[in-house]
Design a protein that fits this description.
Layout (H helix, E strand, L loop, with lengths): L4 E6 L14 H16 L3 E6 L7 H6 L4 H25 L4 E5 L8 E2 L2 H9 L3 E5 L9 H11 L4 E6 L20 E2 L1 H7 L6 H9 L4 E5 L5 H6 L6 E3 L1
Parallel strand pairs: 1-2, 1-6, 2-5, 3-4, 3-5, 6-8, 7-9
Antiparallel strand pairs: 8-9
Helix pairs in contact: 1-3, 5-7
The chain binds uridine-5'-diphosphate.
GO molecular function: ATP binding; UMP kinase activity
Main location: cytoplasm
Subcellular location: Cytoplasm
Length: about 230
């Protein structure tokens, strides 16, 4: 395998499948099976999940809610998603630990960096819940931060699109996909890979990012094997 330790970022929306809201169990099951296949190869896997399928702080602020309050609700949404994925992973026989940035002692461990690393070394899939634990951040930033902390080789951003395009492929039929692109080019071209805080963190700490389509069964294995699908930012 190309990598030893990876951080997989999944958006909350990706858990919706074809639904408009919430969690699609079939989709979560597919993710669990794909993650198991890669885990069986001996890779250390840490996961950060978003919460956009349940609650987004920024949207709630637009309808009048206090931003910080709304963001904490968003962080709780990520814990719900994390628990759903944890359940699905354990159903396929993987040992997992859920570590959250906000203490919830009855359901998970608090995030302690050294403990997270130890879990990974012992072959447990580690899920990081509640984002960074701070309002005004995103789960992309949590993914970048945790990846650096645990010294992951790469951030794999599993989305519904198969990479980074010159323009929005749903609007521009001439848009083409990058196989590889530098951090600098992403800034210069104004492309949207992750939010800027997350993106800069990865750049400054030399953590490459790969954007790929996680919804296609088997893609995660291809990426973990180093196959050039998706877009590599380095
Ligand atoms: N959030 C936050 N701090 C964090 C991570 C997340 O406040 O460190 C909140 C924020 O309100 C965000 C919501 O949690 O809208 C869900 O996360 P995100 O939007 O990143 O999820 P995704 O877009 O990946 O589904």
């Amino acid at each position: 395998m190309k990598y030893k330790r990876i951080l997989l970022k999944l958006s909350g929306e990706s858990l919706m499948g074809d639904k408009q809201y919430g969690i699609d169990n079939d989709r979560v099951k597919q993710y669990a099976e794909d993650i198991k296949a890669v885990h069986d190869k001996g890779l250390e896997i840490a996961i950060v999940i978003g919460g956009g399928n349940i609650f987004r702080g920024l949207s709630a602020e637009k309808s009048g809610m206090d931003r910080a309050q709304a963001d904490y609700m968003g962080m709780l949404a990520t814990v719900i998603n994390s628990m759903a994925l944890q359940d699905a992973l354990e159903k396929v026989g993987i040992k997992t630990r859920l570590l959250t940035a906000i203490k919830m002692e009855q359901i998970c461990e608090p995030f302690i960096r050294r403990r997270a690393v130890r879990h990974l070394e012992k072959g447990r899939v580690v899920i990081f819940g509640a984002g960074t634990g701070n309002p005004y951040f995103t789960t992309d930033s949590a993914a970048a931060l945790r990846a650096i902390e645990i010294k992951a080789d790469v951030v794999l951003k599993g989305t519904r699109v198969d990479g980074i395009y010159t323009a929005d492929p749903e609007k521009d039929p001439l848009a083409t996909k990058y196989g590889e692109i530098s951090f600098r080019e992403v800034y210069d071209k104004g492309l949207n890979v992750m939010d800027m805080t997350a993106f800069t963190l990865c750049e400054e700490n030399q953590v490459p990012i790969i954007v790929f389509d996680m919804n296609k069964h088997g893609n995660f294995m291809k990426i973990a094997n180093g196959e050039p699908i998706g877009t590599l930012v380095k």
